[in-house]
Design goal:
With 137 residues, the chain is an alpha+beta fold. Helix content is 37%, strand content 13%. The model has no long low-confidence stretch (mean pLDDT 84).
């Protein structure tokens, strides 16, 4: 069994994707309640968490939100669950739940499929700065 920080939700993301890294930076900036911790999908820990969850390798091109011992979400469901934690107008994002999951995941998959072409890709996972290092597992 993997040990995780108590009362933290874990976001697994594509560590070499520029779009994903920008999203992580945005989440960190708006995570005023210090809810989230981050793990690159490509890392040993990221792979271990996916195995622990029984997540197939085919889902590893998606963002995964893991609430240890409770549940996990991926693709558009993860994005909505993450945004709900920001408060303010972000709470309204729950309205997107009325869209059938297959439709919102289709849009998510289209963006995920093209993310490297549109936003580029790094050669390796980002190395967090000293001030945000504690946010990464």
């Amino acid at each position: 069994m993997l040990n995780f920080p108590k009362n933290k939700k874990i976001i697994l993301f594509d560590g070499v994707c520029n779009l994903c890294n920008s999203a992580v930076q945005y989440i960190i900036k708006h995570d005023t309640k210090d809810i989230f911790r981050f793990v690159a999908l490509q890392s040993e820990l990221g792979i271990s968490i996916c195995k622990h969850l029984g997540v197939s390798f085919s889902k590893m091109d998606s963002i995964i939100l893991y609430n240890p011992g409770v549940s996990y979400f991926y693709k558009s469901s993860a994005a909505i669950e993450i945004a709900k934690n920001f408060g303010g107008f972000w709470k309204l994002i729950s309205i997107f739940r009325i869209i059938p999951i297959f439709m919102s995941d289709y849009i998510y998959d289209y963006i995920a499929k093209n993310r490297y072409n549109w936003y580029g890709k790094k050669e390796s996972c980002m190395i967090p700065s000293a001030e945000i290092k504690a946010k990464f597992l």
